[in-house]
Design goal:
This protein has about 375 residues and is of the alpha+beta class. The protein is built from 15 helices and 8 strands.
């Protein structure tokens, strides 16, 4: 089968997206700030999860200036539950860099965008193309899947010569789209053919060219797709070697004293820096969680009341939290200098890590 040309692929993708694109809130604007926030939130996160977060964020921090000057705790609270919290910190650092180095202007080229914290090649290309209609390529998981199937490309798509080739193919596509006429969409004006082309690749991978059960017969590029013609769609991209999950057990103490709760803030520079948690300790293999907790708190096990355990996953780590409640009669020095007593309203307002927010919900409003 002859390799499909970039022009023929673009000609099939543009009208399909204009007719089939999901009506997402960040597609109703050309504001590069709004598009940037959505792209960062969508990394490692599903669209249905991102929508309410994006809407709350845009209501609270609607522009570069408000983000640049916001207290970090407020930024983290708005991000609470999305995970990968360095994304939120980098958003604020990048906003501060725009104020400092660009006069508060949002950079309009992929090259300028790459100089900002937290913006890599994909994100720079997405913003430059979607917001500014620049012919900048994109390559994320969805686009990788679409391109490796269309061209039946085997190998590791995220490294080596195949990755270079995929970026080249993505560049050829958006360049070809730039030469095609732009027509308005039924849902929004996507600001030009480059914008539409890149969004069509992402949309196709998210809604039709999915990892499992792809809807090949309805795909606008199926007649040009080598994997479909060879009936080997599921062979691309080449599956990664599976890694075994790592089990982690921790004991968590919900310590209460006269309506206040004991929390610890994660130290700067570490994982989840700046977020708050109930005191917790690792439970070594063969040990009992209540015993570990009692030993670290300096209280008898009989004072501990078991709560519902919490399970949480981060990448390949499977975390099991065994949770206990205790009424404290005095200050517990063993939990460290970064511990503070907070009221219930303060507990609700502080940014908690996702697993510990699940614990807080057990305690009611």
């Amino acid at each position: 089968m002859k390799a499909p040309s970039p022009a023929s692929l673009a000609a099939a993708l543009l009208p399909w997206f204009r007719q089939q694109a999901r009506d997402l809130p960040w597609r109703r604007t050309r504001d590069p700030y709004a598009i940037w926030v959505s792209e960062i939130m969508l990394q490692q996160t599903q669209v249905k999860t991102v929508i309410p977060y994006w809407e709350r964020w845009m209501k609270s921090l609607p522009d570069i200036g408000s983000l640049a000057t916001a207290p970090e705790e407020r930024v983290l609270k708005l991000w609470e539950g999305l995970g990968y919290y360095s994304r939120a910190r980098n958003l604020q650092r990048a906003a501060q860099a725009m104020i400092r180095d660009h006069g508060g202007r949002f950079p309009g080229s992929a090259t300028e965008l790459l100089s900002l914290p937290g913006i890599g090649r994909y994100t720079a290309g997405a913003i430059a193309s979607i917001a500014f209609n620049q012919p900048a390529p994109i390559l994320d998981g969805n686009v990788i899947r679409v391109l490796t199937r269309i061209h039946a490309l085997a190998g590791d798509p995220r490294s080596g010569t195949l990755n270079v080739r995929l970026w080249s193919l993505a560049g050829d596509l958006v360049t070809a789209a730039a030469e095609l006429p732009h027509r308005p969409s039924r849902t929004a004006d996507f600001s030009g053919s480059c914008s539409v082309l890149n969004q069509s690749l992402m949309e196709l991978g998210a809604t039709m060219c999915t990892p499992r059960d792809p809807e090949c017969p309805a795909c606008p590029v199926a007649p040009q797709c080598r994997a479909f013609q060879k009936r080997k769609v599921h062979a691309y991209p080449t599956p990664k070697a599976r890694t075994e999950p790592v089990a982690i057990r921790r004991a968590v103490a919900v310590v209460e004293r006269r309506g206040r709760f004991l929390l610890r803030q994660r130290p700067a520079g570490g994982v989840n820096a700046g977020f708050w948690e109930f005191p917790e300790w690792d439970v070594p293999a063969g040990r009992i969680a209540a015993e570990v907790l009692a030993g670290n708190l300096g209280v008898p096990e009989s004072k501990l009341t078991s709560m519902k355990p919490v399970r949480h996953s981060i990448t390949r780590h499977r975390i099991h939290l065994e949770v206990f409640r205790i009424e404290a009669t005095g200050v517990l020095d063993s939990v460290g200098a970064n511990a503070h007593w907070v009221t219930r309203s303060q507990l609700n307002a502080l940014p908690l890590t996702a697993a510990h927010r699940k614990i807080a919900r057990q305690m009611g409003p």
